Every structure is written in C-alpha cells, then in structure tokens.
C-alpha cells in the first residue's frame, strides 16, 4: 500500500509541474499587451511600462515562470490589478459559491444515476432498460445550458418555486442560498447523471454475469440484496472514477452555468479575468483548479485500494 501511495503521489507531483508549464506557456503566447489593454489605447508609453513592471511582465519568460511558480508554492497567488485585492481573497469568496454548487450537483447526479443504472442493468434488454438508457442518451446529447433555460422557465417563471438567478450570499441564510443554487445544480447534474447511469449500467452488466452472482442467487439470496450488496460493490471502480472526474468538471467547468444564473463563482471569475486580461488571476485560478483536479484524481486512485483489496498488495 505504501508503494502504491508513493507512486500515485509522484505521478500527481509530475503532472502538476507539467500543467504549470503548459498554463504559463499558453498565456504567454496569447496576443496583445495586457498592460495596454487594461490602461486603454490613450495611455502613454510611460504608464504602460510602469504597469508592466508592476505586473511582472518586464522580465524574461523563464524568470517570470520561476517567480510565479515559486509564489504558488508558498500559496502567494499575487494581486489582481482589476479588482485591486489579493487573488486568494477573490478565490475564497468565489469558492464559497462554486464548491457548494459542485457538491450539490454531484449529490444530485449520484442520487439519480445509481438507481437508474441498477434498474437498467437488472432489466437488461427489456423495455425498462431501453427507456432508461434512451433517456440517458438524451441527457448526454442535450447541453446543460439548455437544461438550465428549461428549468428556469419551469420552476422560476411558471411555478415560481425557485429564483431564476443571482446569489444572496450565505449571510442571508442557508435556505435562501441553497434555493439559489438548486436550479444551477440540477442543470449541471442532469447531463452528468446521464453519463454516470450509463457507466453504472455497463459495469453492473459485466458483474451480474459473474459466477458468484449466480451462486448467491442459487442460495436463495434476495435479488435486491444481490444487486446492492454484491453487484454494485464490485462494480464501483469505474463508477467512482467517473464520479471523481465529474466533481472536477463541476468545480472547474461551470463558466456557462454561472453566467446563465449570474452566480459569482470561480467560473465567472475566470471569464471576467480573461475578458479584462487580468493574467495573474487567470494563471492562479486555473492552476488552483488544475491542482484540485489532480488532487481529486489522486483521492479516486487511493479509493481503489479501499474498494478492491487486491490493489493494497501491488507495488
């Protein structure tokens, strides 16, 4: 188990280092002068040069990368030149929206997908299976912003149960804040639930053909217990993998949904920073999201050893 953990940690560290180089290089080749864009075309060359020095754009690429990476290692994300506040303050404020949104969406996705996948696998080839997987295929094909608009019309405009957008803040109370997150969370969860349901069904179909499942049934074990206690547990590795990837996507890939519902989250922050050419915010937030994705994947890898005891003894 120790060798397994060390190997996964080494892979995560190398991946993070390579990702930092890619993120920095991509932003380096973006055309245009960020200082000129932020000051406007009427600014003098002296003003532009002064801002370039303040933003750390006057050194060479290698020098700037080493300085930026060193600051990241010490958890110094720099200071936003658009908002005039430390980037860590912006991240903390926006994370209070994006993290609960991702967690709620993942919980909804799992609550929908696991029962649907179990139902479809237990009725393989029958009408229930065809209908369930047809609905899942539709969920995969339809983009989440279309679900968002449909949910707004249904629950906000017609039924008037939930707000159509905006976020009152956690200071307004837990229930008003959760109500504001329910529609965007559901819009994010439905396509992910469709993917997870198909993966769950596929994994369960393979497991249900194993000999130990037939043995359990031959001994008179109830079908529900076979499904939940034996089949699902042994089909969890691909399911957990997809859940980990989905959480990373839900946290890092909510730009469209946060703009549709006007939520002040990390996705909207990245969109605004790109528009305003606030490179220090873009670099720092993107690297934070990359680190989160790598950390989630590491946790998923380690969870394999809990799900499958055979991995604990591998090197």
TrEMBL record:
Cellular localisation: Cell membrane
GO cellular component: plasma membrane
Keyword Transmembrane belongs to the record: yes
InterPro entries given in the database record: BPD_transp_1_N, MetI-like, MetI-like_sf
Gene3D superfamilies to which the protein is assigned, alphabetical: MetI-like
UniProt KW Membrane keyword: yes
Primary localisation category: membrane
Signal peptide, first to last residue: none
Key words of the record: Cell membrane, Membrane, Transmembrane, Transmembrane helix, Transport
CDD domains per UniProt: TM_PBP2 (cd06261)
Domain spans labelled ABC transmembrane type-1: 95-300
Membrane association type: Multi-pass membrane protein
PROSITE patterns attached to this UniProt entry: ABC_TM1
TM ranges: 99-121, 142-161, 181-199, 235-257, 285-307
Domain of life: Bacteria
Example of a GO MF term: dipeptide transmembrane transporter activity
Family to which the UniProt record says this protein belongs: Belongs to the binding-protein-dependent transport system permease family.
Protein name in UniProt: Peptide ABC transporter
